[in-house]
Every structure is written in structure tokens, then in C-alpha cells.
Amino acid sequence: MELNLAGKTALVAASSQGLGFAIAERLVREGANVMISGRDEEKLKNKIRELEEISQGRAAFYIADVTKAEDIQKLVSKTAERFGGIQLLVNNAGGPPAGSFEELTDKEWVHAFELNLLSYVRIIREALPYLKQQGGKIVNIASSSIKEPISGLILSNTFRTGIVGLSKTLASELAPYNILINTIAPGRIATDRVKHLDQIRADQQGIDIETVEANNKAGIPLKRYGTPEEFANVAAFLLSDANSYMTGSSFLVDGGMIKAI
Ligand SMILES: NC(=O)c1ccc[n+]([C@@H]2O[C@H](COP(=O)([O-])OP(=O)(O)OC[C@H]3O[C@@H](n4cnc5c(N)ncnc54)[C@H](OP(=O)(O)O)[C@@H]3O)[C@@H](O)[C@H]2O)c1
Questions:
Q1: Do residues 204 and 157 both lie within one domain?
Q2: Do 255 and 220 form a contact (C-beta atoms < 8 A)?
Q3: Which is the closest atom of ligand 1 to the Cα of 18?
Q4: Do 120 and 134 share a domain, yes or no?
């Protein structure tokens, strides 16, 4: 199967670690030009260094907070300027805070909206003129909460489903430009974010994090957390020329965790 990612330019939002970085690395390995981003300059510089051997100068970084419209505008224009266009876009952001309905304030709701939904809208809007030039691919990172709400994560449960509505609608609106858009929903992929959430659960239940992890793994048919590389494989396929007929869909990468049909 030919992915044909070499020579294409990808913008991967929120990609200084975790799932975003794993996708960026995979795309660099496939020969794409890749812009990574995040809020922490040191972290980004280290990641570019880490990629140096395989990227041969095809990876760059730009500091951008995806909750800020002006940062997004600059991130997109700098990417296009640096590499001469954008054909591939990966939407991502940090996860919203944990909390139940009665714990969360308006401020936290508005911030989660800006972080986990509005940022996707804004990045797509800014990138569209470039994606339209030759057609392109968009992949949104969401969560298994799009299929089954996760207890204690009402902000994720609410705004990730918005990504699915956005994506499904855009699949029709962008098809005339040969732009395909899909959403990937991680279950439990071993990243810092998942460790952080497991630690919160451990503290709440007064047990150690290893016990939380073991309990979680017991509920996953494949009996383990996924790796960021396994997640990135799915993104690479959806972004590639090998995906020519899938758009507006959502895909779980969860080792079988979600039982909904
Ligand atoms: N891992 C999983 O299994 C899983 C499951 C369900 C959902 N998710 C969701 O998938 C997304 C990625 O997950 P992950 O596990 O890779 O998370 P992660 O390890 O926490 O990485 C998040 C990345 O986003 C960046 N980021 C955070 N806030 C940002 C902002 N305002 N502007 C720009 N960049 C920002 C972080 O860098 P800086 O902090 O340096 O900016 C970091 O590079 C998250 O939204 C997470 O909630 C993940």
C-alpha cells in the first residue's frame, strides 16, 4: 500500500508530546514536511532535535496556544510560508480538566469550548485556502467519549461530540474541493495525559496508580493500553493517498474498550 506522504506538508497542532508528536514523527518518517507546535519552546526545540536524524530539515516548530485566534493565524501562515503550502492538517489540543457537572464553573466551560472545539474550527478555517489548492486531508483527534461518556470528564464528553458534528458537516461541504476529514478517537493510549487521569482516579479512590491501570486494562479486550505509534499508524493512513474514499467518519483506536456498536 502506497501512502504517498513524501513531499506533502503537514501541520500538526498541539504536538510537542503524546499523540500529536507520534503522528508528527510518523509523517516525518514517511517523508512529509511537518510543522509541530505547542506552548513550550524548550519542549518543541528538544522534539525537533529528536527528529533531526530522520527529518533532514523537514521538521520545524512554531509556538502557538490553540486557544488564541492570533496564534492560530500565525501558525498556519508560518507553516505555509516555510514549506510552500499545506496539504495535511491534524487538529489536536490538550485535554480539558476532569470534573463533574456541579464542580465546573462557566470559566472552565468556556475554556474547554475554546480549547477542544473552537480551536479546531479556527485551524480548519485558516488552513482551508491552502488545503483547497490541491485537495487535502484533515484528521481530528477526539476521544472515546464520542461513543460513550467517560465519568468525571463531562467537558470532554460534551465538546468532543461537537468535533464529530463539525467533521460530518464539513465532509459534505469540503468534498467538492477533494478535502477529506475524519476523526480518530483514542481509548487509552499510554501518554502523559492518560497517566495524569489515572493518577486523579487513584487519588480519588485512595489506591495506587498501578491498581488503577490494572483495573483499566482488565476492561480492555486487548488487555493493555495502546502505544502512541499504534495511534499514529491510523492517522497516517487517513492522511495518506491510500485513503481516497473515507470522509466524515470516526474511528476508535481503543483495543476494543468501547462496547457500543
Ligand atoms: N492519550 C489518550 O489515550 C487519550 C484518550 C482520550 C482523549 N485524548 C485526548 O487527545 C488529545 C491528545 O492527547 P495526549 O494524550 O497526546 O495528551 P498530552 O500528552 O497531554 O499532550 C497534549 C499536547 O497538547 C499541547 N497543548 C496543550 N494545550 C495546548 C494549547 N492550549 N495550545 C497548544 N498546545 C497545547 C501540549 O503541549 P504544551 O502543554 O507544551 O502546550 C502537548 O504537546 C488530548 O486532548 C487528550 O485529552 C487522549
A1: no
A2: yes
A3: 16
A4: yes
Mean pLDDT of the chain: 97
Cell 470559566 sits on residue:
107
Matching residue, cell 495535511: 88
The string of DSSP codes covering 192-240 is HHHHHHHHHHHHHHTS-HHHHHHHHHHTSTTSSPBPHHHHHHHHHHHHS
Tell me: do 170 and 235 sit in the same domain: yes
Q: Based on the number of CB atoms within 10 Å of its own CB, is 206 exposed (0-12), middle (13-18) or buried (19 or more)? A: exposed
State how far the Cα of 189 lies from the Cα of 82, in Å rounded to an integer: 32
Question: Do 96 and 68 share a structural domain?
Answer: yes
Has residue 71 been placed in a domain? yes
Could you give the angle at the alpha carbon of 257 between the alpha carbons of 252 and 259, nearest 5°? Answer: 90
Cα–Cα distance, 39 to 100 (Å, whole number): 27
Q: Is 39 in the pocket of ligand 1 (CB under 6 A)?
A: yes
- pLDDT confidence band for 74 (50 / 70 / 90): very high
Q: What's the domain count of the chain?
A: 2
Please provide the size of the chain in residues: 261
Which domain, by its residues, includes 208? Answer: 189-225
22 touches ligand 1 (CB under 6 Å): no
Atom of ligand 1 nearest to the CA of 22: 16
44-66 pLDDT, tens digit per residue, is: 999 999 999 999 999 999 999 99
Taking residues 120-132, report their average pLDDT.
98
CATH assignment of the domain containing 159: 3.40.50.720
Q: What is the pLDDT at residue 129?
A: 98
Closest C-alpha to 28, from 88, 98, 72, 117: 88
This prediction's pTM: 0.98
Measured in Å, residue 193 CA sits from the centre of ligand 1 at 7
